[in-house]
Write a structure and sequence with these properties.
single chain, mainly beta, seven-stranded antiparallel beta sheet, 7 strands
Amino acid sequence: MKKIRITIILLSLIGLLLSGCGGAKFSITSSSKNAKIQINDVEDGTFAEISDMYVSSGKTVHVESSLNKGKLKIEFCEAIDVSTGDEADEYVAGAVMDMVEVGPGETKEVALDVGRYVLQLTTVGQTDGTVQINIE
């Protein structure tokens, strides 16, 4: 329960940092098994990050795009735990293990090794719409 609260707080803070004065560029709702990414008509090269997703044995990552325009590049980076002692787990992105790019109406699958991943998101071109990521 403590991890869920901390995750919600971190996601809220990330959302606030990404929102700036012009409204939120990304709206991300995520857990360790899925993420919904709403992209609000942003320019090429806009960046966001999802801090912690877990792929267990026999599971595959499914990426489904409902983008209206543009593309989203998703880099699956190894998650490196930088917390110490009694601190809550905190992960940073390590090496890129795999990458996919999805455009309007595309669906892709990614087979990753068992482990935790940080997802780095970058828009390609003027991008608007939603991308859903599920680990099944």
